[in-house]
Amino acid sequence: MNSIHERVDRIRREPEHVRVRYVWAMVAVVMTMIVLLWVVTLRDSLRKSIPADADTLRKSAAPTVFGDTEEDSASRSAAKPYLGEGIGTGATR
């Protein structure tokens, strides 16, 4: 079995286009390892950030993303006398 020094010497004696192939092969191997590590850690961090109870997520995110909360409706109702009927209807003065 060749030692790593013998293998490196053999690669050094190769023409440049062959050495470039070795470089790109190593880049592909290392990049694949980095991407796999990233995917594993991303999956783990996403799993930790999602609440265990799906109803909790739906109740907490739905009003702020998809509609008004009770507080938004109340503040809009309180502001109507000062701003006229244009609030929330798209009408302008």
What keywords describe this structure?
mainly alpha; 2 domains; 4 helices; rod-shaped
End-to-end distance: 86 Å
Which regions have little confidence, pLDDT < 50, spanning 5+ residues? none
Helix content percent band? over 70%
Number of strands: 0
- What can be said about the biggest beta sheet? none
Class inferred from helices and paired strands: mainly alpha
Number of self-contained structural domains: 2
Gross morphology is rod-shaped
In words, what does this structure look like?
- The protein is an all-alpha fold.
- It contains four helices and no strands.
- It folds into two domains: 1-50; 52-93, no CATH class.
- It has helices spanning 4-13, 16-49, 54-66, 70-83.
- The radius of gyration is 31 Å and the shape is rod-shaped.
- The relative contact order is 0.04.
- The mean pLDDT is 76.
Q: Can you give me a brief rundown of this structure?
A:
The protein is mainly alpha-helical. It is 76% helix and 0% strand.
